[in-house]
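Sequence only, no structure available. Ideas?
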Amino acid sequence: MTVRVLLVDDVADVRRLVRIALRFHGGFEVVGEAGAGLQAIELATRLRPDIVLLDLGLPDLAGRDVLTRVREVAPGAKVVVFTGAENEDRAFYEEHTAGYVLKSGDLDYLVALLDDLGRTEQQEATARFEADVSTVPQAREFVRRWLHECGAGHVFDEASLIVTELATNAVLHADSPYEVRLSRTSGVVRIEVADGNAGTPEPQPFSAVAESGRGIVIVSAISASWGIDAQPHGKVTWAELRPE
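Reply:
I predicted one. Tokens follow.
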């Protein structure tokens, strides 16, 4: 898998140097470059990179503001700070990002760090879909490809049922665009669907004549565990599978 990187730095020569280093290393694709904070947020929203390499000295927004807003629009991305000088908030950034690297250091160290993060990122994926039932097959295909790349294609039947139900709920009941988030850690495949409605679906008693309400029962039956987490602007419904 190729790791998709967004470069954010107001110095074009720095972006060019990093881009060349990543190209020579291999395994990376620079999907976008931004010279300012607002542009970085717009590109992160549209491109959904795996990694954002973030300079703190941008001309329009403070580093914390850019970091916060990038996390909001691209929650699946890992952010690495790449800055030209020590920052009094370094402890904050080290706690809230995947790495903090000074430009005066060895560029090979930066590339190695991004490579390590990229290998981890291969076990995670995120995609956003519009509030339309026609996108549900696209969500299933996204899950199918990711499971195959992770070596867990044998659980696609169960995962397909889960993502179909959760995505359909987001479209029909939440009436909201939705985000499918996938991860695999410690042998557990986790499927999350985030939408913009705080209402929570509840399993309904089985009925042979009911036209809705049975999907969550299916999700609960085939999952090792499942749940609903409230978010500031909606909710995340999730389910976990445990491939043998």
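The helical segments are 12-25, 37-47, 63-73, 90-96, 107-121, 136-150, 156-172, 215-222.
Hope that gets you unstuck.
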